Structure formats: C-alpha cells, structure tokens
TrEMBL record, chains A, B, C, D:
This is Malonyl-CoA decarboxylase. Residues 67-150 form the Malonyl-CoA decarboxylase N-terminal domain. It is an enzyme of class 4 (lyase). Residues 153-420 form the Malonyl-CoA decarboxylase C-terminal domain. InterPro entries: Malonyl_CoA_deC, Malonyl_CoA_deC_C, Malonyl_CoA_deC_C_sf, MCD_N, MCD_N_sf. The lineage of its organism: Bacteria, Pseudomonadati, Pseudomonadota, Betaproteobacteria, Burkholderiales. GO terms for biological process: fatty acid biosynthetic process. Transmembrane segments: none annotated. The keyword Lyase applies. Residues 330-350 are annotated as: Disordered.
Length: 447, 447, 447, 447
C-alpha cells in the first residue's frame, strides 16, 4: 500500500521533472532564455538528471519532433538564395536550415555541469538510436556540435603517471578496453619510466579523461603484448636506448563522444610530445589486435571454393584449403603450442608451428586487404582506424597475444601499424582511394 | 635600388603566404585534412600571421566566394525534405545548407594557437565589413561559431587582484574602456579589499582576459564615480558593512568577439560569486555613463516644438524650453558649479544648480525612454545593454561624472541600473515587448 | 675469479666513497666550505649514498670522534664567562661548546637532497645506536637539529584524499602502523567523505609525508574499530550530523625523525582544521590501542599477592584473583565469546562475558595508572603520548578490537583519549606532576 | 583630557602586551610549552606585534638577562666532560652551554607567522644593537638560528618575470638597492627576454623575496651600466648570441637576515640555472659599483706623502700626485667629459679624458688591493663580498656609471668580478690567506 503510494509519488515527481525540463528547453529558445540562459540551463540540467528511462525516451522524442527546422520556410529561403545569391539571403537560409535543437544544445551547455549533461544525453541517445529512426537527425546534431566543442585546439594533453590522482587512475583502470588492467599493481607497471600514458582532457570536464593511449618505449618494434605487460620484468632504465614508441592500447572513456575522432589527434600529438622528449626515437608504431579475424576466418572457412573466384582471391583459396586441412588434422591451430614429447616429435612440432603461424599471417593479410564489400578497405575496425589515420600496415605477428581473449579473437595474431609522420597525409589520401598502405613484408603475404 | 629589391622580395613572400594559406584551407576541407588536420591547420595559421593588409582582403574575399554553400543542391535537398520529412533528408539538408567555411573554421581552430588566430581573423574582418557587403555572410559564420565556442560553460571566471601576474594587469590597464586607468597606482586602488575585478578567460587563450568588470563594495548605492576611483581615500576595511555591489566599469578585451554577449553572463556570475562571499550584500547595481546624452540633447534642442507633438512628448517639450532658456541665459549647465561669490549669490547659485540638475535628470529620463524609432527602447547603448540583461533603470544622478569626458558626453549625469536577480527574466521579457523597466523615481521624472 | 675481482673493485670504490665523504666533511668545515659549501655538500651527499654498511659505521665513528668540541678550550671559556659574564665571552663559549658536527650537518643539509640525506643518516645511526655508546652524543646532535628544522612553523598540513597522487597514497598504505591497510579498496574507505586523513610535509621533502593521522567523523564517540574500517558500510553522507572527530590511527613515515615530536602538533592542527570546517563538531577524541596490556597482565598474573601490598594496589589484587580464577576456569577471556549452546547457558554466557569485560576494563585501568616505576605515569607508550599531549583518559572499551592482533595485544580492549582543547595545557601540567588525567568513569574502575 | 586618557589606556594596553609576551615566553620554556607550544607561541607573536618601541627595548633586555645560560653549571659540566669525555657528559654540557633563548626562539617560530615575527624581532634588535652592548649575545643567537633555518637547502630559487604577481614586483621595485627602479616601465625593461631576475624564497614566508639578483644576458662583458638599463634599447632577441651573464644588481629584502650569507648561494645557483638554460654562456661576471672609492680618495688625497712610505704604496704615491695636480688644474675629473670647443681643444680634451680615466683606474686598483688594515683585503664591501665568494677582480671600467650617484661615490668607475665556477674554491682559499685574486689587467695597474 505504502509502496504503491511511494511509487506514485516518484512517478509524479518524474513527470514533473520531464515537464519542467521541456518548459526550460522552450524557455531557453524564447525571450527569457536570451537574458538569463545560464539560470534556465542550470534548471534544465537539474531536471534532466532526475529523469527515468521512460522520461528520457519522451525527452528525445520531443527533441526530434519539436525542434526540427520548418520545411516550408527553408524551401522558400533556399529558393530566394538560389536566385539572389545575396549574403543576407544566405544568412537567413543558414539560420533557418539549422535545426533549432542545435541552438538549444548550445544554450544547455552554458549551465554549470552543462558539458557533462550534454555528453550524458548523447550517451543515452545512442542507446536508443537503433530502436527509433527519428532520433538519427537528433544524433547528427549532437555529433556535429560535440565535434566542434571537443576539437583538439581546446583539449589538453596530459601525461598520466604514478603521481596522478588516484581518482584519475581508477578511471584508467575502469576504461582500459584493449588489455584489461588487473588492479593497481598491473597499472603501476604501465606507468613505469619505460612506459607512458597520455590522455586528452576538456577544460569543462576537469579530472575526466576523454581518451587515453598507452605507450611502451622499446629498443625494437614489439611482436607480442605479453612481455610489455609483464609485471615481473624490470623496467628498462636507460632512456638513450629507447628507439621505438609502441602504442599498445587506446581506449575511449566517454560513450557520448562516439563518432568524434579524438584517437587520430591523440596519437599524433603524443608522437610529437615523445619525439621532443626522446630525440633518439626513430619509430612510432602500434601493437594492435585484430579483433574479428577469427570470426571472419570461421565464416570464410565454410565458403565453397567457387565463391572465391576472383583472380585476386586465388591465393586465399589455397591458404584456406591448407587451413581446412590443418583444422581437421593436427587439431586447432591455437593448440599448436601444446606440449609435444620426444626429440623427433618436438622438431616436427616446431616446424608444424612455424607453418601454422605463416598460414595464419597470410590469412590475416587477406583479411585486412580484401574484406570490404566496396573495395579494398578492411572491415576490421582497428585497421580502418589506423589506416584511416594515415598509418601503414607494417607487420603481422603470430603468437602476439596468447591470452584467452587474444587466441579466441585472432588466433593470437597482433599487428604493427607504423606512423611515419612524414607520410601520413599521402597514405591517408591513398587510403581514401581504396588503397591499403602496407609494407612489402605484408604485401608479400598476399601472393 | 636595394630597397626596391627588398620590397619585391617581401611582396613575393607575402603572395606566397597567401597562396599557401589558400592551399592549406582547401586541403583542410579535402581528404588530407581529415587525416592530419592539425598539422595543416598549424601551417595555415602560420601563413595567416604573415599576411599583409592586401592579402588579408584577398583572403576574406576568397572565404566569401569559394566557401559558400551550393544554392542548387540546397534547393533540391530542401525540396526533398519538405516532401519526405525524413531524418536522413534533414541531415543531408542541414549539411548542405551550412556554409563550408564553418567547417573550415572548425578545422582551423584545431591548430595550436588556432583560437587566437580565428579571433584575430574576425577582428580583421570586422574592420573590412562596412566596405564590402559580401563579407556579411562570412562574418555571420564567424559570430555563429564564436558564440558556440565562447559559451559561458567553457569560460573561467577569475578574480583579478594585486597578486595577479603583471602581464595580466597590464592588459586590464590597456583595455579599460569606461574610466581610464592612469597607471599602476590607479589600478592598485581598484584592486583594494573594497574593490573587486573579475574577468572571463577561455582555456584556449590562457592569460588573455576576454572581458572584465570592476566592482565597488559599498554601504549605499553610489551616485558619483569620483569618490570610487579616488586613490587618496583609504579602502573600507570592514566587509560586514558592504551592502551594495556597484558595477562601475565593464570592458571588452577582444574585438574579435563583437556580438558575442559575454557581459550579461559576466555580471550575473560575478553577482552570484559576490553574494556567496558576502552574504550581507543586498543590492547589485551599476554606476553607468550615458555616453551620447549630450549629443542627443544638442540635436533635439534644435528641433522645432511642433516636431514634439505626440502627447507623450509634451513634458519633454516643456523641459526643452526650460533648457533652451538656461543655455542661453546663465551659461552652459556644465559650468553651473563654477564659483559664485557672495552670500546671496551663493544661495541663488545653489538653487540654480539644483534646478539645472533636476532639468538634466528629466531630459535624460526622456532620452532613455523615448529615443528608439521603433518604440520605447532607448538608443543609448549602455541602457540597451543593461535593460536587455533584465536590469531596471533605478536612478539618474546629476553630477555623477565631473571629468572632462563625463561633462562632455552627458553633462555629468550617471545612471544606476539595478540587477534584482529574482526579477531579471520578467524584466527582460517586458523589455523585449518594448517596455523600459524603471523605478518610480525615474518614471516620476517623465511627467 | 672474476667475481672476486668485482668484489675487490666494489670495495675499493666504497673505500674511496668513504674517504671522499670524509674529505668533503672536513672541507665543509674549512675555508673552502665557506665559499662554496653547496657544491661540496652535494659531493658529500653523493658519496654518502654509495656507502656500504661497514663504511656507514666508519663514518658515524668518525662523526663521534673527530667532530667533538675541544674539552680544554670549553673549560677555559666556561671559566672566563663565569667570571666576566660578558656577552662576548658568552658568545665564544656557546660556539666552543657546540659540537662541530652540528655545523657540519647544517652545511650538509644545504645540498640538493640534503634534507633527505640527513634524515637517512639519522635512520642509519639509530640502528647502530644501541651497539655503540659513543654514538649517543652524535644522535643527540641530529635530534637537536632535526627538531629545529622540522618545527611546525615550517611544516605544511595537507589533506590526503582520493585526489592525492597514487605515489603518496602508496606511502600511506606502506607506513600505516596501527590498523594495517589491506590494499587500495581498503584505503579508499578511509578517504570517503566521512573520513579524513591529514599529513605533515616538509617543503624540502616534497611528496614525502612525515606523519599522518586518520580521522573518522561520527555521531558519537566510537567504542570499537571494526565498524570504522568496514568497507561494506556506506559512508555517512550528512556532514551536519558529524559531532565527533575520532583519531583512530597515527603513523610516522620517517624513522630518522624519532624523538622529534610531530604527533602532538599534528593532532592539534587537525583538530583546529576540522573545527573550522565542521562547526558542529563537539568532541575530539581518539580510538587507541593498548599495545602491551596483555603482556603486562601475563607478567603480573604470576606475581605473588604479597608483592601487591601498597594500599593503592589492593583493588588490583582482588581483580587479579578474579582474573586468575577466570583464566583457569572457563577458559581464557578472549574466548569468552565462543558459542554457548542452549537458552540458559546462553544467558549465563552473556552475563559471564559482561563480567569478563568489566574485569578486563578494571585491570586495564590499573595498568594505565600504576605501572610506571617512578610514579603514576603509565608504561603504555600510547597512553604516555596522548596524556603527555594533555589529553584525558576518557573511556576503556571492551571488545574494541577483535582482530587477532587486538586480542593478542590487549584482550580486545581499546581506549578513548579526549582532546579538550581548552584543558590541554592544564592537563599536561598535571601529567608532568605525575598525575593521570582521567574521567570519572575510568577512575571509578580503580576502586 | 580625553587624549590623556586615551594615551593612558594605550600605554596600559602596551604594558599588558609586554607582560603577556614575557609570560608566554616563560611558559614556552616551561611544562605548558611542551604540550601546547604552538598555541602559546601564537599568543606570544600576537602580543609582540603590539609592542611599542619602549616595550621592544624592555623585551630585548629581558632576552639578554633572563635567558642566558647558568655560568656555574656550565663550568661544572665543562669540568666533568673534560675529565670523563663521556658522551652523556658532552650531551649535558652542550645543552647547558646553549643559551635558553635559542630554545625560546625555536618554540616561537612554531607559531603561525612565527618566521616573520622572528625576522622582525631580529630587524628591531639590530637597530638597538649599537646602543646596548648586552644585546650582542642575543643577536648572536638570532643569527645562529636564522643561518640554520635559512639554509639554501630550504630555499626556493624562483625566476621573477613579467608573469609574476604585481605584489611581488612591487617589492622588487622597493628593495632594489643598487640601481634604483624608476617605476613599472623601468622594471619591465629588466624583465625582458635578455634580462633575468631571480629571488630566493623561504617556504614559511610565501610571496616574500629574501634576496634577488638581476642579470643581463649579453654578447660581451659589459663596461657600463647605462646601456643595460636603457628602456629605449630594444631587447636582444636571439638567445644563441648570449655569451655573458652579467650580474648587475643584488639586493637584500630582509633586514632581519643581516649576516646570513644568501648572496653567495644565490649567485652560484643562478649561474648554474642559467648555464643549464643557455649552454652557450661562457662567462659569469658582475658589473659592480665601488661604493666608497670617492670617499677614500678624498681622504687619502689629504695625506702627506710620507705617510705612504711602504714600498708597495710607492706607485700609489705617484698616482696621487698626478691626481692632486688634475684636481687643482683642469677641474674635477668627473667633469672631464664636459664640452670642450674647437678641434685642437677637442683632441686635447679626449687625450686628457683618457689620462684621467687611466689615473682613476690605477687609484681604484690600489683602493681595492691595499685598504684593509689587517692586510691586503679591500675595505670596499662589494669587493669583499665577491672576492670572499671566490670571484676574481677582472676589470676596472672608467665611465661605467655616469649617474649622479655613480659619479659621487666612485667618480663613475665600475668593476667586473668574474665567477669562474671551477676556480671559486681555490680563489676563496687564497682570499682567506689575504690574497686578492685579480686578473693581470688589474694587477698591471698597480705598478
């Protein structure tokens, strides 16, 4: 009885928060909003924070329906501008064509805590995006404005180290998405003098990392992640021997920033910062996973040979056949390292293992080159990210990630992408024209 | 001979800077720009800084001509959206209708020093705006983006005091626009414990104040500026006696931010900050100049009476006649304070002076109420600013500013606008509907 | 063979470091030292850091033997001053009587890193103090100077919280000496909004806590440590309900500062800081262990009754007899809580437990009052510390610390000492005259 | 009447402050002081600040009379130690021989604001030192402790520049003692990129510079001060051309630190800091005044030749005769530059001027070498300071300081002292053995 009453009260309060939020949004775009928008935005943010899931949905629907531009007046102004080409007509058209919710968001963000609130709205919106096609235009407006507000000219690059606040380090532990951080001891290894961690911060979100990257300073380009994360290995001490900066993990912390490309900027700024601090550094590369290689291989394995007709896939066909033979013969490749007893068997086992590794590397090269429907772009998201940044596919390493996750996702393969700061732009342009930039070592695997 | 050669070289270099800037702008919007926009933006900013006046003009013309939206495709998309109302059509329309130079500016600002460069461009653009009508649309884009980037949610309110860096204080001295600061001693008086100075800063422009306000903490609403700035008066020591915060000067430091209303936000945030620090404060008001009152009066003085026919201007007519009599009789009002000798004369002089003061206050009330062509809005920019912020016209003070400038601009009058934080929104709405919010004391002057 | 060579080299290097350190020390007190003491001190500190254990011993012996004052000249100057009472003779005497190693330390500390080096020397010296009587005078000089350098006027009180650098928090975990911190999760509980941690820092040792205290903000004086440290209990949220600040742990981080009383200053400064931040706080107390109560009880248990003859120990005699009966009857008191089955037995068990608790509290009261050979001062170090600071023995709590360590050291008892800031000085004076300041509740236990 | 009453009240209050200060001092050394010394020290500092001049005198007299060591017990303990040589006897002796006011000061400095108070006491004491011989021992204790507390290991070297707080810069202007700073414009010139200013700070006196030095970064060793301070000369821009760091002014800000040699440390730390920042710097030197050269010359000019008998002063005798001739002939040397008309006269004037310059430089060389009664040490305080630091007398420049003050004090001469960081120690030792370290150029002037 009492509980029901409470529930009733709660939902009344929520309805009221929703109603007030809507009022505040309308006021923000009206005359009151002009004079005292910060106070109204503060109120709006306060009500937003109290919304339940249902109210959130109602709020986003409102954003989609009420704050669209007026089609007729846009059409009319577009016509006028097409005729006159006059600046004043252009100004009027530009204003009319911009959905009013953009101005709404620009006024909401004025609130104290407004930036965090807008990011939270976007995160909530993304969750609901698939289910409701009308929200796409709302989301486009969020992404448009967030890209403008979170431009690298406003961001601060900060090194994260063992002198950073525990509250920040805790977030690094929580958001690490590539190679899980198993507690503070594990984190500490990643902040030793031969490791670096850098994060972007926005001034309106103090203490909140947006995205961070972890780097290992090494003597040579690394082929496997295990040694980099090994807490028992003592840190390298002599900075003069650091020749390679290997980016081995990059993680986003703000779901609300999806589609706002910060990783590209982060990697390049960090590379510059490191180059300035360690003039002996010669190579900037990644050590990256190939997250859905195993899935792709499982799928393609089941394809009939005649589906792989195009000339360029001939080599893949041969490799696939060998792979099928391996899989059904000596057991799954990921178990190839399992102990083989006796001298002769051991040698045979080693040779077998090398063959398997080579086979996987060839298959992976195909995967990274030939899987985009439209052309040569890879379907692998990590590859698309780095190649799109202008990096080069430098090396495919077998046995690079022998964790459970690594074996499951990519049969243990890891990839180095190379960031040659002088070639980035040209590489990117070639990538845009459907070309994968790769080293000879990698293209050699394709034949 | 040698000089001519040098000049030739210089202009060659300049042309080259212009050409490279244009190339960089195009690249920023092309495929290269996507992958490495910061590096290209850095280059663009570098070239921009070297431009001569002529090259600047060429650059702005380019912005106006090359980076406009395509009228036909906007028209087409507007038509499609008007029919379909589909989110994807709206997204396409919004994108097409936004002038590409907005995206160009968003990418330029990514450069290190990009924010300062964009502000400098805007300042240069404003200088050329009157002479070239085509630049209006370019300027609208600048203002649109700057309003978004310099929203109060991103700004930091900082107190400026005697512990602030000399470099910052130097800028305060330079930019003070209302009551000139005559050197460091004068500045120091304005930073004593019974005075406050606050400025807005943007994180991407460290050490560069955007706008600042000076406040006096007092026991009563001030009627004259002289005592507030008097270096010889010892600062009030007991903060418990501060009942009134009087904003006596507000100055912009960034010409590139014209039209981006920061003053409104600044005054309200400062009022909140002061209220938190001094709970005994009861009144937030200004002590403001009436900059073009004397000009108006000179103009209106010459009008024929029958031009002032409308009923509401009858009272003005009477006042004007008295004024004309005064001006041609006992000499200009601003000399009314000049020494009169002898007991009787003195009394008469004092009475005269009081009458003059009253007359001027009445004329000023008319000036502030009835000078907008469209309606009741004042043409006085200071009045429009504060009334538009939702303040109330509280009191008109004779002999408020007896400096040369004060006598010349406003016959010495100064005005208090009252910021009643609870009434600001309602006041603003009334102001929007052409109503001037004023105290009874002021409206009483109109009859 | 090779190893022996290496060892030979190492010990040669060490001898050389010792020799150079000694040279540098002599130079510091000579003419060279006057002009460029920082450079020489830098060198000395460098050599000191390389010393082996043997060399350290040799170094301290040198400090003891070579840098003593000259007895004859002191005697002569003392004679002269006793006769003349002249200021210049006093100056000469003061200079001559001060061991030259004090000046040596004052010059060593000028080095970069000198403060850390001198603290390290003291820590090493303390380890060797028992074995070598000659070092006592050296140690006295260290303590004398460190007390002067680490005076509270130079120290900075800083709050340690979850925003503190991980490096600092790691040291808090390591140095916590009273209630062990079991990892970062445990630490985090102690830094929640209803807990406080404060540390003293010296400006010449940035990032190095000297001593820290942990405080719980509570509604009532706590009787047991368990709930305070329980990570599962949600932190109290409403600061208006904090009436009691309970200091539940205080730990030194610098062994080299032994005998330099910082705890006294720390507790009082923290109390003031908390009082300023939480005006509703009424009570500042501790929740303290009684570390050697169980040892004392085991010893005294074996004493013959007639050794406890003095009138004031009569009550103790009775309590001891009861205790002996308990110990040999129903099992050791610390097991009194062990499960008793059946209704009647349960009641009896509970009554039994209450009696045991009372008995232990009485015995503990005796322990804290009557165990100093010289008089009424307690031999318990924690009691001596707090009572010496002017606190009052407020309450003895049974079942205050049920950890293994707590049961073993004190049969689970914990004590509250009360810091009444107004009574501290008077209490201290009474304590100096051999009186234990205690509440009536505690003195009541003595009869 | 009323005034007398007020005066009576005031002096009663003062007597009471003095009495309470004395009570607090006694309490600090008594039992109460042990437990709560900070609170008592706070009170003492509060009373001290209210003392009038008379009360200050009484307070210092008390320090001299009541807080001396007990002569008899020192004598007895000195005797015991001379016999036993036991560490415990030494400890007892050291304690007894130290004047108790040292412990008093150590406890006073624990107060909040204690460091500033102790410095103020010392400054007040120094003023009274000449008049009261008994205060010498008190002053020795102050100096002894301040030297320990203000050791360079505790001090922070900070660059002072145009980004420093105005409050700090104001102090730099006020305390500049060598070449007066004429307002903020003049100061600004001294903080341009080719100038440096560094100050020492003590952590317990935040924002209060102790001593500062001004440095010019130049291409060559400077011979005159005028160009260095000229606000109209544009700052040198290219840091690669800085070969010489010339210390042209060093000023103390704390009179209470007299006799605590910070200048020596400051110059050397600044030299190191500059060397690290500008690896191309080759020379560290000063451009220094010779403050009492003119006085000395006026005195020695009046001496009879036969007073200059010693062989080593023969050369001086000759120079003096020439000087006397000049002075009584062509007018005072300082006017030698006055306009001479006509070609021939001009040439003659120039030659004359050169001769005068040479003569003055020779006389100055004598002054700097031969004026200490005890030996070869100079009586010039600036020379004693730099030579005592281990610098070398490098060059004597005529027409180095043509200001009124420069001409009056030293007939315009200025001196370069050279800090060769590798020779400092050896130079200092030679200086201690009465030898002036000088370049050949300077010693050449002596013959």
């Amino acid at each position: 009885m009492f509980e029901r009453l409470q529930q009733a009260r709660r939902s009344a309060r929520e309805r009221s928060d929703l109603a007030r939020l809507i009022d505040a949004c309308r006021a923000l775009l009206g005359a009151r909003g002009e004079s005292n928008s910060v106070a109204i935005a503060d109120a709006a943010v306060g009500h937003y924070r109290n919304l339940s899931a249902d109210s959130l949905k109602a709020f986003f629907t409102l954003l989609a329906e009420e704050f669209d531009p007026d089609p007729q007046s846009v059409l009319e102004l577009a016509g006028r501008y097409a005729q006159s080409r006059a600046p004043e007509d252009l100004i009027a058209l530009t204003r009319a064509a911009e959905p009013p919710r953009q101005e709404l968001l620009r006024r909401l963000i004025r609130a104290s805590g407004g930036t965090a609130a807008v990011l939270s709205m976007r995160a909530q919106l993304l969750v609901r995006l698939r289910g409701d096609r009308r929200l796409a235009a709302v989301d486009a407006d969020f992404q448009h404005l967030l890209s403008s507000w979170f431009n690298p000219g406003f961001l601060e690059l900060q090194q994260v180290d063992w002198d950073s606040p525990a509250r920040l380090l805790e977030q690094i532990i929580r958001h690490e998405a590539v190679h899980e951080i198993d507690g503070w001891g594990d984190l500490r290894r990643r902040l030793q003098p031969d490791r670096r961690c850098f994060a972007f911060f926005h001034p309106a979100l103090p203490g909140e990392p947006l995205i961070f990257v972890e780097v290992a300073l090494l003597e040579a380009m690394p082929a496997a992640i295990g040694p980099l994360l090994d807490c028992d290995q003592p840190p390298a001490q002599d900075p003069r021997r650091f020749k390679v900066a290997a980016f081995y993990s990059i993680s986003n912390c703000q779901p609300g920033l999806r589609g706002v490309n910060l990783g590209n900027f982060l990697i390049k700024q960090v590379a510059q910062r490191l180059q300035a601090g360690f003039p002996a550094l010669r190579t900037f590369c990644t050590l990256s996973p190939v997250p859905s290689f195993a899935d792709w291989l499982a799928k393609v394995e089941r394809l009939e040979s005649d589906r792989l007709k195009p000339a360029r896939l001939k080599a893949l066909d041969a490799a696939l056949q060998a792979w099928r033979a391996r899989s059904h013969g000596a057991g799954p490749v990921e178990k190839a390292g399992a102990s083989a007893k006796g001298g002769a068997t051991e040698k045979a086992g080693a040779a077998q293992k090398t063959d398997d590794a080579e086979l996987l590397r060839r298959l992976c090269a195909f995967y990274l080159f030939h899987t985009s429907a439209a052309g040569l772009r890879p379907s692998d998201p990590v590859a698309r990210f780095h190649l799109g940044n202008g990096a080069r596919l430098e090396r495919i390493n077998a046995d690079g990630d022998l964790t459970r996750k690594g074996l499951k996702q990519s049969h243990g393969l890891m990839v180095n992408y190379l960031y040659d700061l002088d070639e980035i732009e040209a590489n990117h342009e070639r990538f845009v024209s459907e070309e994968v930039n790769a080293s000879r070592a990698v293209t050699g695997l394709l034949h």
